[in-house]
Design goal:
The complex is a heterodimer of chains A (about 160) and B (about 400). Chain A has about 160 residues and is α+β, with helices and mostly antiparallel strands. Chain A folds into 2 domains: about 60 residues, no CATH class; about 80 residues, Glutaredoxin (3-Layer(aba) Sandwich), CATH 3.40.30. Helices cover about 50% and strands about 10% of the residues of chain A. Chain A is built from 7 helices and 4 strands; from the N terminus they run H-H-H-H-E-H-H-E-E-E-H. A 4-stranded mixed β-sheet of chain A has the order 2-1-3-4, covered by helices on one side. In chain A, helix 1 crosses helix 2, helix 3 crosses helix 4 and helix 6 packs parallel to helix 7. Chain B is of the alpha/beta class and about 400 residues long. Chain B folds into 2 domains: about 200 residues, 3-Layer(aba) Sandwich (Rossmann fold), CATH 3.40.50; about 80 residues, NADH-ubiquinone oxidoreductase 51kDa subunit, iron-sulphur binding domain (de novo design (two linked rop proteins), Up-down Bundle), CATH 1.20.1440. Chain B is about 45% helix and about 15% strand. Chain B contains 15 helices and 13 strands. In chain B, the strands form 4 sheets. Chain B has a 5-stranded mixed β-sheet. In chain B, helix 2 packs antiparallel against helix 3 and helix 11 packs antiparallel against helix 14. Chain B is globular. Chains A and B meet through helix 2 and helix 5 of A and strand 7 and helix 11 of B.
């Protein structure tokens, strides 16, 4: 709680305390926690002197501002047409089998969350996914297993 | 007038590396503003995001708008399915876009520029910041009072709509505003604002560098100049290509198809699906006096071969729209849900085939009544797919 409060104060110092600062502050919290807890949204509303409902309403509008608890690494796999027709489902299957989770779920160790997302802008190198901000394209089931293998070794 | 198309021609302006941006910036800001505006107007450059508003006119209107506080915004919220050209521009030639923004600032009287970068392109933030720092250093050196900052989006297709983008910049939900007032009068912070697509800005750089004529000489009638095309789907050579506007879709398919092209989606999910039988009569550009159909596009060209189900295509688009609709106006919020539920029901046999006609009427209603381009354009792909591939929707 204390550390969350401190971080939000620091973000408000950096971005300002007006309405225009809201998105950068929300993004700053997500960058650190991977999601926006109710606590964090209430804290932000106090810091910016906004109704908590406004903060919640804004945060939940944007798909990258998750408001459910997420794992350290959020795998977003593109489901829009080009990726979908270039074998997105096989990629998804490989990930599900490897991590033993379904779409929208997080692994028990809190390392990975799996979600689908709309067009990532890599249609010419489909299928594509991002893990946090890192982009992976021209995926195959073998390639995706290799990538996840690397992420499993990372410290969290 | 007889049918007339240009042959497909590759052009290379946008991605040509040059080291002239300092010179072009310095030269431009010492020219009379009216001269620069006239240059842009005579080039007949139109907005390359897809809507095709004349760029010169946009800058002129903002320059004439009252007020000291104005803004120049670069729309890099590239979210249309099948579009990925803006990312390449910002990766490979960011200085062209920054220069164009500064020249625009000089013309309209703005001291601040903002690049609204989509959250999916977060990895671009750092290199773009570096480019901006270098650029600002030069602006300081020549005493040009113009600063550019990046604002990160957070994953919302609708924020590519200009007024939704302003709302997002102001820290709110990205819900489009009523128009008018238009951005040239009341945009970001309710101040006069120029908002252009990344590619449009890059083209103005070409025009400032070579003059309007070189640009105008390319293309046909109302579609002048070149355009970047993002090509994906069933093609042996997916990627980004700069092509002269006005080519026929048949020529395009001959060049980029895999020999079995069944249909091409021109302009992304919000654009039109053109079936094989209409390739000959379709040109790529803004509607003019030419015989046949001209389709404008933000540059998304997706090819589908005969293995692809057009039902799956429409289902995918509608799911996209249902999720990306901001939910503010009823026609779009409910319409997208109902269109998707409707085609699923017809496919499963829960509804009779003539139900598709009711859905077509619904999409037409959305076209007339939705508040912004998202809801209005769902009918484009919906009608062009259902009308041309009706049997695939049913069986």
């Amino acid at each position: 709680m204390d550390s969350l409060h401190k971080r939000i104060v620091a973000l408000a110092d950096l971005h300002g305390r007006n309405r225009e600062s809201l998105l950068p502050i929300l993004q700053g919290v997500v960058e650190y926690d991977n999601y926006l807890s109710q606590k964090s949204m209430v804290e932000i509303s106090k810091e910016l002197d906004l109704p908590a409902s406004e903060v919640y309403g804004t945060a939940t509008f944007y798909s990258f501002l998750e408001h459910r608890k997420m794992g350290k690494f959020i795998i977003r796999i593109c489901k829009t047409i080009s990726c979908s027709m270039k074998g997105k489902n096989q990629i998804l299957l490989a990930i599900k089998e490897m991590l033993k989770i379904e779409i929208g779920q997080t692994t028990q160790d809190g390392r990975f969350s799996l979600v689908e997302t709309n067009c990532l802008g890599w249609c010419h190198k489909a299928p594509a996914m991002v893990i946090n901000h890192e982009v992976f394209t021209d995926l195959t089931p073998e390639k995706v297993r290799e990538i996840l293998g690397e992420y499993m070794k990372k410290e969290i | 007038m007889i049918e007339q198309h240009l042959l497909l021609k590759r052009v290379d302006f946008i991605f040509v590396q040059d080291t002239d941006w300092e010179k072009i910036l310095q030269k431009s800001i010492h020219k009379p503003k009216q001269e620069l505006i006239n240059e842009l107007i005579s080039s007949e450059l139109k907005g390359r995001g897809g809507a095709g508003f004349p760029t010169g006119l946009k800058w002129k209107l903002t320059s004439e708008a009252a007020g000291d506080e104005k803004y120049v915004i670069c729309n890099a919220d590239e979210g249309e399915p099948g579009t990925f050209k803006d990312r390449e521009i910002l990766t490979r030639v960011p200085y062209k876009v920054l220069t164009a923004m500064a020249v625009c600032g000089y013309i309209v009287g703005a001291k601040n520029g903002i690049i609204y970068l989509r959250g999916e392109y977060k990895f671009l933030e750092k290199p773009l910041k570096d480019a901006i720092n270098e650029f600002s250093y030069f602006c300081n050196k020549i005493n040009l009072d113009f600063t550019i900052r990046i604002f990160m989006g957070s994953g919302a297709y609708i924020c590519g709509e200009e007024t939704a983008l302003f709302e997002s910049l102001e820290g709110k939900r990205g819900e489009p505003r009523n128009k008018p007032p238009y951005p040239s009068i009341s945009g970001f912070r309710k101040k006069p604002t120029v908002i252009n697509n990344v590619e449009t800005l890059a083209h103005t750089y070409t025009i400032f560098k070579y003059g309007a004529k070189k640009f105008y000489d390319l293309g046909v009638q109302y579609s002048r100049g070149s355009k970047l095309f993002s090509i994906s789907g069933d093609t042996p050579k997916p990627g980004i290509y700069e092509l002269e506007l006005g080519m026929s879709l048949q020529d395009f398919v001959d060049e980029f198809g895999d020999g079995d092209t069944k249909a091409v989606q021109v302009g992304g999910a919000s654009g039109f699906l053109v079936p094989r039988k209409k390739f000959h009569e379709t040109a790529i550009g803004y509607q003019g006096k030419l015989v046949g159909i001209s389709l404008p596009t933000g540059g998304s060209m997706m090819l589908f071969n005969s293995c692809r189900s057009m039902y799956n295509l429409l289902d995918n688009y509608l799911e996209f729209f249902r999720e990306e609709s901001c939910g503010q106006c009823t026609p779009c919020r409910i319409g997208c849900q109902q269109l998707l539920a409707g085609i699923k029901a017809v496919k499963k046999g829960e509804r009779p085939a003539p139900y598709l006609d009711k859905l077509l009427k619904l999409s037409e209603t959305m076209q007339y009544t939705a508040k912004c381009g998202l809801g209005q354009s769902v009918a484009n792909s919906f009608a062009s797919i259902v009308e041309n591939f009706r049997e695939e929707m049913i069986y």
